Amino acid sequence: MVAGGSRRRHPLTGTDAAGFYGPGSAAWARNRDAFLLLGAGPRALLLQLAHPLVAEGVAQHSDFRTDPWSRLAGTLRSYLRIIYASRTGATAEIARLNRLHRSITGVVDDPEARAATGVETYAARDPGLSLWVHATLVESTLAVNDAWRGPMSPGEAARFYAETLPIGRAFGIPAQILPVDLAAFRAWWAEMLGPGGVICVTPTARELAATILAPPLAPLAGQGGGAVLPARLRPVLAAIPPRAAGWLLWPSIALLPPSIRAAYDIPWSPGRRAVAAWLVAGWRAWAALLPATWGTMPQALSADRRIAALAENARSR
């Protein structure tokens, strides 16, 4: 059915099994593709770090410099659990993150961060910081989908944003600062990135970004939250220079706002743009040839099976 048009309500919508979004939602449709999420992830991380106080929290409360993969993997797991888990599971994940973030407080060390924000301390549960982190995930998903899958219709984009509002409120973002609709969100986003906005890439952010742009590969093997390969490969990966894999991130870097890319001092030449376009074209070519499930996130497939089983049980009664 055409996005934004008349839709038939799924019989399980609103149940615990359907979660916060459920079958037929724009979120379930637009967060399934692994390639798109891997593109949105690094972009969202760089945007998050562009907030001086977020950069301070990450620098002081994580091992991001040595293992950025764990943060990326953890963010992705939490994001997908909130989208595709049952309402009970998603609520539990939000509560876990809220508890975790209560302990992330500290003194602002970076002089540029103090100058940009006018504060000397930070707390991850500050509603303004929660809003920025939430917004980077929403906006990056919209940007990557528009660029790589084709623009959403105005109706689908508006619906996608509206579906995120309950999640924002669950993270403690009060209604008075949470943009009420997509138009308000885009206006707020432009203001945040504009000349008078708080977003400012500090030296701390640039230091952390260097790890994203040239990630160490060894943490991908063995134990750890970001490990996806056997431990025996760790010595091999440790011998590969970090910059050897940096070009794989260029499609994601291409979608950064130009002002943010420049503030991070990321070189952006016609050659890099061409490589980024070539990687995206390669993904599109393979996606057209392979089964749809090949590139689908396992959390989405699990949710599909859960809903299908419940629907089948309901029909057989």
Q: What fraction of residues sit in β-strands?
A: under 5%
Dominant shape: globular
Q: Give the SSE order as H and E letters.
A: HHHHHEHEHHHHHHHHH
Write down the Rg.
20 Å
Number of strands: 2
SS-based class? mainly alpha
In the residues, how many domains can be counted?
1
Mean model confidence by pLDDT: 90
Helix content: 55-70%
Number of helical stretches of at least 4 residues = 15
Distance between the termini: 29 Å
Largest sheet features: 2 strands, antiparallel
Poorly predicted parts: 1-6
Provide a quick synopsis of the model:
The chain has 317 residues and is an all-alpha fold. The chain has 15 helices and two strands.
Structure description:
By secondary structure, the protein is mostly helical. The protein has one domain (26-304). Helix content is 59%, strand content 2%. It is built from 15 helices and two strands. It has helices spanning 26-30, 34-49, 52-61, 68-84, 87-102, 111-117, 127-148, 154-170, 182-193, 203-213, 234-238, 250-254, 258-263, 270-289, 298-316, and strands at residues 105-107, 121-123. The chain has a two-stranded antiparallel ribbon with strand order 1-2. The model is unreliable at 1-6 (pLDDT under 50).
